Amino acid sequence: MRRQSASARTILVASPRGFCAGVSYAVDIVELVLERYGPPVYVRHEIVHNRHVVDKLRAAGACFVDELEQVPPGGLVIFSAHGVSPAVRQEGEARGLRVIDATCPLVTKVHLQVLKYAREGFEILLIGHRGHVEVIGTMGHAPERMQLIETVADVAQVQVRHPERVAVVTQTTLSVDDTRAIVEAIRQRFPGVRTPPRDDICYATQNRQTAVKALARESDYVLVIGSPTSSNANRLVEVAKHQNTPARLIEAGTDIDPAWLTGVQTVGVTAGASTPETLVHDTIEHLRALGFSEVRDLQTAEEDIAFPLPRELRAAPEL
Prior knowledge:
Blueprint: E1 9-15, H1 21-37, E2 41-44, H2 51-60, E3 62-65, E4 76-79, H3 86-94, E5 98-101, H4 105-119, E6 123-127, H5 133-139, E7 146-149, H6 152-157, E8 166-170, H7 176-189, H8 203-218, E9 221-225, H9 231-242, E10 247-250, E11 266-271, H10 277-289, E12 292-299, H11 311-314
Parallel strand pairs: 1-11, 1-12, 2-3, 2-4, 4-5, 6-7, 6-8, 9-10, 9-11
């Protein structure tokens, strides 16, 4: 039951929220490389899907490029958290680029699973969103053996040569509930389907979706702070709406329209995995100015995961 109060209007803040270990890992890498080697440091694609993070790194000297051909020969380039295909790595080697890999280790785990399934002769179904950078990189690890599945309806249309040799992997930032439905549809069509020993959807995505479900149940309106290009932030909006609570994606507190909150006693606030905590604080201050005077935390899990820096950055500073 949603908490109603006759007095103070309340801001209910979800925890966990914001930066996950993979995002912190990638951002830390760019900052450390800039500090150690100085600009220009090239980054293939946005390091994470958040305009505020990207703008801050750009101001510090990071140059974001879409393709490696935009990096001068011998240049220093960082691969984004979303991962790249083997073809991109080979292109970097061919151009003599100095490469540092900021791929989230949980995305790398999916890549390794794809390679294992391909070696074992499986046809692989990748559940994900067409055109997403992570999906492009994952598909590139076994393009001749992979097909993309976006919806339950896609499962009925997919054609495989050997129905008894089918395996499934997923994009790491999907809706847990939607993915579960797609996997079940695949199992019904291919009863012997092989799935990874653990979910591919990352711990942070799952934790934030669990938190926003609890948040939506106790709130009259939910604000999710994140980028329109962020898969995990968009999924949080969807999950909140599935709890029959109005929800909206904002990039910062300045996006809030007071009309949205007319009649709202409790507003829930959470943030996608690429959103810095400063934007959460900014949003809370904007809500305070709109008359929400009480702030409470709603914690559903604790997170203490951190990934060690790549070996080349733990070693002596020489590239």
